[in-house]
Amino acid sequence: MWLPLIFSMVLIAGMFFGYKMGNSGSSRGFLKVSKTTSLQEALDLIRLKYVDKVNTDSIQSGAIKEMMNELDPHSVYFPPVELKAANEDLAGNFDGIGVEFNIFNDTVNIVYVIPGGPSDKAGLQIGDKLLKVGDSSLIGLPTSKIKEYIRGERGSVATIQISRNDHVKTIKVTRGSIPVSAVDAAYMIDNTTGYIKLNKFTENSYEEFMAALESLKKQGLQALIYDLRSNGGGYMNEAIDMADEFLEGDKLVVYTEGTNSKKREYRCKRPGLFEKGKLTILVDELSASASEVLAGALQDWDRADIIGRRTFGKGLVQEQYQLSDGSAIRLTVARYYTPLGRSIQRPYDKGKKVYMDEIWERYSNGESLYADSNKVNNGKEYKTAAGRIVYGGGGIMPDIFVPIDTATYPRSVNKLFVNGSFNSFVYTYYLQHKKQIDQYSSPTDYIKKFNQLEDMWKQFVVYAKKDSAKLEGVTPKQKETLQKRLEAYLARFRWRNSGYFQVLNSEDTVFAKAFEQVKK
Fold it and tell me: What's the whole-model pTM score?
């Protein structure tokens, strides 16, 4: 019977002392009330005293951006209007109608319709031109604005006006969740060798990777080429899970540590699907962050041959924190280290511009052409259990260096890629020859049997003249690479990225070196 009385007395005492402490200016330690910062004081003065009306939200946003600029190059601020797109980039899905489009002559053209997606169910087709969404015209709008109109909350209805074969019609599409695949391509090169291309480490990338790997295993996979070129990273835990599929036991994959973050180790936790069998990892100067975590772990444990060029050199871990106004910051909280203790982060003490420009300087200073020039910048040497020398301080240096392809085009030809003319030509050619292209059963069948490339080239030469690009004067090497691009772009309209990469890989020197290595 005394318990209720005791609880009441404790509660009253707690309320009393809590009130007293909350109003006491002499409280110490963690109970101390935070002082107003000079930044907050300045904002308050501007709000109360400034001669004109100002948008203080904009001022605060600018102040936060300036603060972030004083930190490392990868700590970044996202205003509320940019945060959704930034999160969608790594989410692996978004809400929309399920089409891929390109803009040709200021008109939105559907170049792909996701099978089984909202637009497919509503009857939209490749080749349809999008004219309006609701009452809003899409003609002449930038891509970002078009996406705003097309995307929307799942379950909402988009009323879309299209032009098909010069006939205008209206179609209603119920928006849904649209997956964005992280795996661009996964196929068997021959009876025992497989290839997987990963473009980003999204929330769903490990599941996609596992589905691809399991499929290849069923087809007889014994050796794997895993392509991480131009993969800028993403979620580190996805890379750790993938490494677990290649490494046995409880091997260390990576560890993180920072001034305000205690050392934390990430180890293998389960039997992997591909712990045995030859493995090569393809990288280049745009392979960063989570890509480097995976490549570094496999290199340190002598599990894979790393082939290509020195990676980006990002060894910093970011966490995202939501702010009260709907904005967010991704703040660097730790550095990550490979199992041997390598930090692969490049120096950034000379500022963000110098830091980012270093990537482009690799093309001009010979580093992308000669392997020896990489080692000068890579700092401390480490030795693996098998006796291989690896480097820290500036990205992952590949075990087998392959220089960049130096085949360049005249400025007028490069313009065809920049302004979309190249893609526009292939798109038009595909629509004109769709029945013929659709008869090929697979990219492999297409690569073996497609015999219209010379005719396609002649048409492209005529088409390019409209943009003042004279292709008759290109070198034999330039013609060969341009024709391969035409063939690959055409395959992409039929089989998406899987077809595109299968065609390009057939003439890719890095891919060829990897295939040679796994066959030894």
Answer: 0.87
Whether the Cβ atoms of residue 375 and residue 395 lie closer than 8 Å to each other: no
Instruction: Specify which residues 118 forms β-bridges with.
Output: none
> Which among 157, 155, 133 is positioned nearest to 145, based on CA atoms?
133
Give dist(CA 489, CA 229) in Å, integer: 19
96, 151 contact by CB (below 8 A): yes
- pLDDT, residue 366, reads 78
505 vs 53: CA distance, rounded Å = 59
pLDDT at 52: 86
Q: Give the pair of three-digit tokens for residue 29.
A: 């330690």
* Strand duo 305-308 + 316-322: pairing: unpaired
Distance CA 96, CA 154 (A): 7
- Residue 117 has a pLDDT of 92
- pLDDT at residue number 482: 93
Q: Which of 129, 197, 200, 314 is catalytic?
A: 314
Please tell me which residue in 128, 227, 300, 508 is annotated as part of the active site: 300
Phi, psi angles (nearest 5°) of residue 395 = 95, 180
Q: Residues 263, 343: contact at Cβ < 8 Å? A: no
Give the active site residue among 119, 181, 289, 291.
289
Task: Name residue, tokens 């209805």.
Answer: 157
Report the DSSP pairing between strands 223-227 and 193-198. parallel
Active site residue 300: yes
Q: What is d(CA 205, CA 157) in angstroms, rounded to the nearest whole number?
A: 29
The count of other CB atoms within 10 Å of the CB of residue 143 is: 11
CA 133/CA 103 separation, integer angstroms: 16
Give the pLDDT confidence score for residue 26 in this predicted structure: 42
Are 213 and 266 in contact by the 8 Å Cβ rule? The answer is: no
pLDDT at 237: 96
Residue pair 264/240 in contact (Cβ under 8 Å)? The answer is: no
Structure confidence at residue 12 (pLDDT): 64
Helix axes 421-432 and 411-418, enclosed angle (nearest 10):
60
Cα–Cα distance for residue pair 112/453, rounded to 1 Å:
22
Distance CA(336)–CA(313), nearest Å, equals 11
What lies within 8 Å, CB to CB, of 16 at 6+ separation is: none
Residues of the chain scoring pLDDT < 50: 24-33, 376
